[in-house]
Design a protein that fits this description.
Six copies of one chain form a homohexamer.
Chain A: E1 15-19, E2 27-33, E3 36-45, E4 59-66, H1 83-97, E5 109-118, H2 123-141, H3 149-152, E6 157-165, E7 168-171, H4 175-180, E8 183-190, E9 195-201, H5 209-229
Parallel strand pairs in A: 4-5
Antiparallel strand pairs in A: 1-2, 2-3, 3-5, 6-7, 6-8, 8-9
Chain lengths: 237, 237, 237, 237, 237, 237
């Protein structure tokens, strides 16, 4: 069974990264993989959530939303993040927090905004990969007022989806594949090859331990390639 | 008193128009004027609002929102359009409806989505100017299923802001000027030079009839230049 | 084409003004024009909005709502002000703020409440004309604790609607005319004849510069008559 | 201990009833008792709630709200009825439904709107007394399309408050008494002297069976006087 | 006409009381009467509502909700308490506040949570009877940090429903009777026999003074029996 | 480092299962593991979500909420499911849908309600384990109107948490361990040993492939023990 865009099973879609995409945020990236495209920005705000008021350091939070024009047919604007968007923005936030030393940024909140411009599958993992670059760029452009990059960012973060379709594992699903997949897995890893998050879901089917191993191997390979496209952190191997 | 970007009083900011900016909507335009930049899309949805159910033809509605990363400092996402956004999206909708023959589009709704990417003053007027192009492109790309363009679109629409600062009228205010203006006027006109909407507001000062006339003259001139950058409608002079 | 109530084109509806209409607010006016009737009150509250906390002086804000029984058929109560009500209450607030010296009222908020008792067209302009009287009466009844009237109120404010029906300009539209109008204009002016706000909208038609001038002339005339019915401010000509 | 307005214990406040107060609703009454004043309207809407769709006849529902200018200091507009308003409007609705034959009005909903213009205690009971008159007037003005009054309205309805202050029972409490009362009772009765609703609450104190009997006697007397001021239903004694 | 569960008119349903039902709240009771079952808990929170900030002592508030699985068919979760739930939780709160000396508990709020596990009529009165036991247990388990029980709790509280069906008064209605009742009365009384709250409602019928007296007598009898099942307060007769 | 309750690393907490816990739902289970306790019910409702209207078969959805009294200190009732609750109820729904043949249940929705009575870690996994039993019991009690159990339920479902604390993997974390864990993993599996969902999250640390394998092994062992406590499905090995 061939893939809609004729890729082989372990092949990523072509990736394009446009840094400094908007001028108001210190870090802003439009990242595209095939027909999926997300605008990721990182901004620093001089306050922290109420529950953190008595603690040292700062916080990082993420918001994820799809623009109405990102899908066919047009999707409605949501009053609040719905269940799916809420899950995704919590995932983005957790993933980035795992590599940032928030104790060192002072009483500030880093806002990661991920607005999907075009949706063709894999928006959440692409958002994570792009958001890390936006975060890197924001820290870099604020080096005058922040501690050195190498003290703030422990590692890079990238993410990719893997799926099981008719028993076959595939890397980086597009929308048509996403809908057809029996099992859908999202993998978030550091540049140095450690896991941050594994989310494997079999709504239409269950999966064996062997299939799990195969999907993990594909995902690892994809993440290595994405990491290579991200800016390189000094002192992280 | 010189302008922050050294323009003369009746000079527009440089305009850039990127058509076909996203792939999912049949019409999509990123329009920029100086540092203000708006993503405008036009989509057709096969249903009409409830109150129209028993009427012939279709409807056109607009939504306007600022992306959080469009301002410094970051602005919060609004659950719903606030008072300002609500006013603006009603204005955009009215302005475009005045030149479309909605009776001819069948039971469909045209959604105009205007998402501000960068905000430096004049987002609502720029959104109108860009949205008309997105609408034109959407109709053009759907000519196979819609009546001919010249039956659907009676005229083009463009808009611009004018302000009064220390008694001096200025065209196309940037944010710094917007904040300082005593009187703020938004002008929406057709390509053939007729008025669609005039909104002149003097919160910090009142204005005389003579000053009104001067602002109207400046606005007309700017709109003529914007019209020249838009696609040309056949049979409209 | 004669008007539903047989007025000539430049004739206002009969106006009735009942001051001190309710006892709890220091200024309260029931103002009627033909079958349109609005209860306007002005109250002082000893606090300011959060965004003003660090600034000198106070604020004035307006709320506008239609009572369910003001229309046939009954209109539903809105959970929040909808788009239209939101636009109107922002207009009322801006119009009155343009003549009040809020720096002098201390850390207080003036609330203008406009509740429509009967709706037959022109509720927003009638609300402005009545609200100014309520504001005047509130300031007068609080002269013991406020600066002198002439330091607080720079001018009077009145408003009226004008419309274009089949090419003919008419003053002070009733509901039937409002619905039929091609162009709808609301004019807010000071007692001394300066403009505060012009809102001209052509949803069903566009309009020429000449038609604009004619509508402005009619509106000016109507506002002069309304001003004559309002209390007279000392020292304003 | 004398009362703030020097009434004796079993004396009502002076009542004023203005019928046909607004023109859009078929029944509309401004009813005042001392400084409390409520605008009560009754309107017929040609639809029924969803849960009634399969049932014969119609429904009656009530809405109660306080205008912001009805109290000192100004009270905030509520987005939705809060707990108190919700209780009150359910009480008003139940009370009137007990005397209307809703089976006979066809698939219609009668809306009773009670908007408090001035609040000085006893707004809910005054609203019931006034709403019944508005309902009577609405039915009367729609006799051309409705069954005869005597088939629709079984009886009249009036209501009054009674309280216990320092062990002393008092009729028709004003706000100052309401706040001071140990026990607060609202009584709704028919013109023919039967009970519709008794709500006796002792938040600050409990009360004995004897005290209950005394309060009921006072309330009955007040309701008889209110009934005498309402229009008389034919055939009800 | 016999009752669905063959009780005589003045007979309560069998009552079961499980104290210490959950471990996190200092007082927690599952109380059942026939097929109605409510989980009542009492917790102390170290803060008070904003409006109490400047006052001495604390507050007691109640929340009432039905679990979706408590009815056939399943009832939907409510975003907020609806009108009915709002009325009920206000009643529960008032009833308990009438016997607690809140001045003595310091700046704390006692939360009473009543979650209906099974609904077969009489949930609000059963909730009150159970909530008082939860409150008693909570105070008892916190005697180390609170004033002595006899200073905090003046009396016990119990509640029961009475109804009029076809002219016959019945005690403690189950759901089938509740729906059929012409008059529905809820009675809240202290252990020493004084009234806290009387709510008698005749939506489907009105009732005479004699019928009122009969219902009150039945209710008193039921409350005496419920009081006997509650823990005994020292020094209250 | 010993565990707070002195278990060994691969030891579950003691489990208690009370079936038929409430009478209104056809399946209802109170399941406890140590101090965590959840009320799980399964109900059939005779309608389907709008988006399913044109499809064959039915749907299964889950709602998860914590009762306010389930934690110390008391947690506030949420108006709507917050981000966390939304994630959890989506997980519960997906997990159960993976083993139910919804095509065969007709146009019905199965509601799974999980209300946490006591929260001491692991509420979401315990809810899944208990909800499957409630679902089994509901199907069993409705066998008269549903297809045979073995056609509807393909397999059983159980879930457990695993964590990494100071590099050590532990099964079935209690709250104190949950808070201290560097990595938190939730595992949902079928009775026959296949994966339904893996969610491994390292907010405070990242984890290696070897650690992942160890956690998976512990989880599998726990799920086997939970499966043994659930009712046995005929024909599933």
């Amino acid at each position: 069974m061939s893939r809609p865009d004729h890729r082989v099973c372990d092949e990523l879609r072509p990736v394009r990264i446009d840094r400094n995409f908007v001028s108001a945020a210190p870090g802003s990236v439009r990242i595209s993989a095939g027909n999926t495209s997300v605008l990721c920005t990182a901004s620093f705000v001089d306050s922290v959530p109420n529950w953190m008021k008595e603690q040292e350091g700062g916080w990082l939070t993420a918001e994820y939303r799809m623009l109405p024009c990102s899908t066919v047919p047009r999707c409605e604007r949501k009053d609040r993040p719905d269940g799916r968007a809420s899950e995704i923005q919590r995932l983005i936030g957790r993933s980035l927090r795992s590599v940032v030393d928030l104790k060192r940024i002072g009483p500030r909140t880093i806002y990661i905004d991920c607005d999907v411009l075009q949706a063709d599958g894999g928006t959440r993992t692409l958002a994570i990969t792009g958001a890390w670059i936006a975060l890197y760029d924001a820290i870099k452009s604020l080096q005058a007022v922040l501690p050195p990059m190498e003290l703030l960012l422990r590692d890079s973060v990238a993410a990719v989806s893997v799926g099981l379709i008719d028993g076959q594992a595939r890397l980086d699903l597009c929308y048509l594949e996403d809908v057809a997949a029996d099992v859908d897995m999202n993998l978030v890893m550091t540049g140095s090859g450690r896991f941050i998050e594994i989310q494997g879901t079999g709504e239409h089917a269950t999966f064996s331990g062997e299939q799990l191993d195969h999907m993990l191997a594909l995902g690892r390979k994809g993440i290595e390639q994405l990491t290579a496209m991200q800016p390189k952190l000094k002192g992280v191997s």
